[in-house]
Amino acid sequence: MKHRYHKYQTWFPNWVAIGIAFLLPTGQGYAFAMLCGAITAYFMNKYKPHIWDYIGYPLAAGFAAGEAVSGLLNAGLVVAGVAGDEVGTQIGCPWNGC
Prior knowledge:
- By secondary structure, the chain is mainly α.
- It contains four helices and no strands.
């Protein structure tokens, strides 16, 4: 049985995403990742809903786990003293700002 407010469900924000945005003091990295994921999910659900139903949520979970693992790898490189800002190059950085 559908709830009588079911038609308004698409207009309510995802409170988990809003909570993460308020809790993480990291700048724009997570916000951009969430934006890319939301845009991808929107178009995939709109144009290929049968694929979205099959792999949408596992794909999103895999991307989130991959971002977490890359953050751990980055932290390990910083601790080891071989981080990108110490031994890396400035290729792709705007005005040597990386």
